[in-house]
Amino acid sequence: MIALSDAAWGVRKNHESQGGYFVLLMNVKALQGHLDQPYVVLDWRSYKLPRISRSSLNSEAQACAGAMDALEYLLIFWHGCVTPWISTTSPGRPRHPHAVCLGGRCEGAL
Q: What are the start-end ranges of the E strands in the chain?
């Protein structure tokens, strides 16, 4: 799964900021730079950021936090679908390949 987020600082009325994200299900080759892989959009959102931003970096961080929340939820949901006999309330995180891309910069976790 890959989460892509981006934000625009002060572009709305009253200089509010806009954020958004996509969460995509892709082949693991996409994490290795092969971005020509087919994908499925699992979740997306475009929204007014909930807090006033004083900088572009703050807007990007807010949008990234929303993307990470969605990614974490979908990873746990996917883990429950693939391995239903494992408790989702037990400590530890699902070990599925994932990445978060923030405003054009990508940080991966394998």
A: 2-8, 18-26, 39-48, 98-102, 105-109
